[in-house]
Each structure stands twice: as C-alpha cells, then as structure tokens.
Amino acid sequence: MRVGILTGGGDCPGLNTVIRGLVLAGVKRHGYDFVGFRDGWKGLIENLTLSLKPEDVRPLYDVGGTMLGTSRTNPLSDPALIERIKGNLVANKIDVLVAIGGDDTLGVATALAAMGVSAIGIPKTIDNDLSATDTTFGFDTAVAIATEAVDRLHTTARSHHRVLVAEVMGRHAGWIALHTGIAAGADYTMLPEKETDLAELCQAVNREFGPQRKNYAIVVVSEGAVLAQQSDMATQDESRDAFGHVKLGGIGKQVSKAIAAETGHETRDVLLGHIQRGGPPTANDRVLATRYGIFAAEMINAGQFGHMAALQGNEIVAVPLANATDETKIVGEQWFPILDIVNS
Ligand code: F6P
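^ thats the input. predicted complex w/ 6-O-phosphono-beta-D-fructofuranose below
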C-alpha cells in the first residue's frame, strides 16, 4: 500500500507530530510506503514529492510547522487542476491520500473522495473551529502561547496604569480568545459570536481604575470580533486568498483607540498574530497529534475512506469527511454566562 500525505492551509503546531505518528504506525504495523506532497495541494498539482521514512520523522515529535510545507492553493478553482491531481496520484502509484488540514483542505479532500479518490482527513487548525471533532491539535498550543503573552501584558500594564488590548486569532470562532481571556484573567473578552457594546466594554475598563482597584485593564479580542457600532470585521487590506478569505486584523487597534477616546485612559494594543502558530506544540498537542496520526493508519487499514479522524470525548473515531466541513464550530451560547461573569 502506498500512502500520500499533504498538509494544507495555515500551519499549526503538531503537524509534524501527526505525520510522525502516521508514518511510524503505517510502516511498523502495516508495511506501508509513504510519499509526502510538498506545499499542500500545490504539491499534488505540480508533482512535488518527498520520501517519508520512519527515520525522517522520528525526531520531529516537538518540531513546529510542517516538514512538507503548506499553501492555500485551491484546486477546485479549475477542473484541469483536479485532473492533474488525479494524474499525479496515478503516476506516484498512490493508493490512499491523507490530507491534514482545516475546512478548506478537507473540503477539497471531500470533493476528491466524492470523485472516487481514496482520501482520509485529519483535522488541523489552531482556531478549533472544525465541526465533528471536539478539539483540533494546535489549539492547546495557541491558547498556551496567547495566555503566556497576556500574563506578560499584565505586568507592563500594571506598571504604566494602561489599558492593554491583545488581539488573538480565530476568524469566525472565538475559541482562542475565550480560553485566553478566561485563563489570563482578562477584564473583558470580545468574541466574533457576540457583538460588543462599546459602553459596556468601557464600563469594564473603568471598573478597574480608581481607589482600591488595580489601575490597569486587559482586554482580549478575537480578530473576527466587532463592536456593535461597526458593520464589518476589521481587515488588513482588500485582498482574498484562493479560498476567498480576507486577511483579518486590526480590531485590537480600533478597540484600543475607541477605549482611549471614551475613557481617557492611556492604551496600547498588541497583535499576537503568527506567534500563536509557531514553535513547538504543547505536551497535550503532541499526544493528541500522535493519536490522530496512528488512528489514521488504522483507518487506512480498515478502508475507511471518505472519513476523517475526530476526537469525540476521549475517543478518536472516524466520521464522514463532509461532516467536518458542514459548518464552522463557533462558541455556543452556553459559554455566554461564563463570559458575562469574567467580563463583569
Ligand atoms: O486558520 C487559522 C488562522 O490562523 C486564522 O485564525 C487567521 O485568520 C489565518 O489563519 C491567518 O493565516 P495566514 O496569515 O497564514 O493567511
């Protein structure tokens, strides 16, 4: 059995750990051969391959990024690209393709599976916004990095009696902001799922200034969050990637300026950006990623094509690929009472 692997979309701590688990289990338990395709779907379109042996992947348990490289190439934009992918799968004698990615990458895998390609998915995103799985690897690391950063903002904000606004990733799903805000003791946390009223936000900030108060404030804001007074999410420019996504960013600065104007407190904003995606995965993500990789080898053995490995409770199970990309898993309303307590 010859297995192709690719990683697509934004990189994520734990990708190498998944590849490691999959290759080690596939070779040792089942005697599979592995071929890596470089830079996501681009590698399958352009036939950019890399041999993957156990000795190549064994040292990568803690190495961030992806040894295969990644891209946001979208082969569904042109039927000719799909034909090239099919041709290169045949040319490389690939029996099964494992796509490790988020909704865009898995959306392509779902389409290929519907065309008869034996495809298996492994969910990846720091945003934790894929349905059908409780958690994706990389999320724990992103929250740990953001929490440590906000912990550090507390001491500088305290020294200067400032309001510090930290913008974290999470396009339409505020999981990173929610967890970071709670874990790092933010005075107010803004999510894409819940419009923020500027007066309420400023009230929370003002609450922290005055006699017997700590005289600084911390605000955590998800990149996709909006103020009730705004109509659109903040974007860096007008451009869109191959899947039609705009580059989000800038809400932290807008919020910081609005707070300064309304309250008169000195404010600063920090954009955590890609720091949240870089570097080694946490121990939890290493374990989760290893389990996903090993489970995918068993899915291949069981012929569970058109499916994705998913964490449900403490079990990894196979779910139809289409379920993963059906809808974005956003922060549900059951979290709002918790948020209200920590925001008030
Ligand atoms: O998909 C994860 C994510 O980190 C989003 O939260 C963010 O908006 C996006 O990727 C940015 O990715 P890039 O700058 O690599 O296009």
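The radius of gyration is 22 Å.
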